[in-house]
Amino acid sequence: MCLCYTDLIVGLGFFVTRVEMGHRFSEFLACCWGAGQHFPVTKDNDNGIGENEDKGGTINLPQFHEYTFDELWKATSGFAVENIVSEHGEKAPNVVYKGKLANQTQIAVKRFNRSAWPDAKQFLEEARAVGQLRNERLANLLGCCCDGDEKLLVAEYMANDTLAKHLFHWEVQPMKWAMRLRVALHLAQALEYCTSKGHALYHDLNAYRVLFDNEGNARLSCFGLMKNSRNGKSYSTNLAFTPPEYMRTGRISPESVTYSFGTLLLDLVSGKHIPPSRALDLIRDRNLQVLTDSCLEGQFSNDEGTELLRLASRCLQSEPQERPNPKSLVTALIPLQKDSKVPSHVLMGIPHGVSALSLSPLGEACLRMDLTFIHEMMEKIGYRDDDGTTTELSFQMWTSQMRESLSSRMKGDAAFRQKDFKTAIESYTLFINVGIMVSPTVYARRSLCYLMSDMPEEALNDAMQAQVIYFSWYIASYLQAVALFALGREHEAQTALFEGFALEKKSNNTTK
Q: I need a labelling partner for 234 at 20 to 30 A (CA). Which of 76, 356, 394, 450 fits?
């Protein structure tokens, strides 16, 4: 915590008790950047980024890139618990984290258990092969990292949760029938694309592997295209949902993937995770009312429900050769689509575009780039958000360099209040360069000073530094948005503004 000078004089005993915490934090910072160095902001074409295009539903994305462990450490704020996005949390054998690269690209990083993938060569070969795929129906693989025992995959980040969340654990509204049909089609299209590119095998296809992007469209996670365990097991879900041939041989085939797609169709119709054997019994007995989600009453006809369940039953045939292939699934699902002109985010009830957000006064000020109002708000907030950041000090450092450091910060604060931004930058820079105290607020204030001085690149660097130190701080995201707006990077700015809005909302809910 950054304390005033008098607090340090009377609180030395308290400060020493936090030395061990400070030591761990200083090690983290040393890994993130060297003393006096800045977290770099790379251009869109840095790090081997280029366009990788293909015909038919493909999108422009960076080419597959092999990241260093340090790059991914920085991107995830040291694999912070708060950045975990996988359904099973930090106790899962393979954990997925949300992260952000220096060029503002949001990513999902899957960090494997150290006992997984003992063969590094196999891991790299599979990752590179999957990394060649590029399609709008996939959460595409952007890269990987293979560093000693560390094996990590890097994919596009999907901001709007999993199909499992929207089907089984919805809070606001159940998924509409038209959207469920669209999800089924999008997944079939994803499988058809993968099959056409020689990747017909998908491991453990289930509702947790289906993600929703910023537009509300369903995407199939690329992680399932790779084996994900030491012994190569392809299914980790309940055996009741496992293809019968896998139970006999322990191997999957393209037809096994179709079987799993059938279980997803059952999920979409019922809103529940019903074992296939139970569902097939209900279908044979024509007891369709028990199978269909009661939340969907009035949204579809019996014929529509029957047609989707008929397709599911074909996918769930006990003999693999009797199941349809992905191309046939796409052909069967296209005529069933409804409300095709309605955007997915509307059907899903997902806020879309900055205008849909109920921004706070600070968020509104960032959107209109009102630097004067932002300055007033940051003055009011002061240093309260520095609580929890720690610094390790020896007694000698405390008695000499600490005085210099605190004096520089106090001069910077006085200049910041008086709107003497040049002096504030110089004083805050001296505080930072001394390097014995860590303050996200100082970086944030210097960022605003840079913005006031028409230096948006430097402002962006500092706002990103503040977020590395305090990864869930909404002000750091908001300042990044303002800097990106100033740089003319509109799309990235709106993404940062969305992130700031979400973090501010979460912060407000926590303090209530």
A: 76
